[in-house]
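Re: the request from the purification team.
They wanted to know what the chain is likely to look like in 3D before they choose a buffer screen. I agreed to run a prediction and write the result into the notebook, where they can find it.
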Amino acid sequence: MKQIEVTIMGQSYLLGCPEGGERALQQAVANVDREMCGIRDSGKVKARERIAVLAALNLAFALAERPPAVASGPSAASPEDGADVGTLIARIDEVLGGDGQLL
């Protein structure tokens, strides 16, 4: 497995990447960096950890909003198989507890 150094919100990370997956990984990194920088630049959230959680939720929500891809085989997931975004937000809020609500 190849290792690639990337930068997200000004911090470097060394990530493992399967051969041939460099382009997809770089695109994913660009998406995460864009989301995190946008949240940071809004000035409403300061903590890096909270910025990362909000960025992850934004990206997961955008992914959930996409039309479902044609899936094949028994491992294909349907919306009924997993938690919805609201459930995920509620679980994260529960874990963060006294730190306040995310949204």
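For the purification team: The radius of gyration is 16 Å.
Please add any questions underneath this entry.
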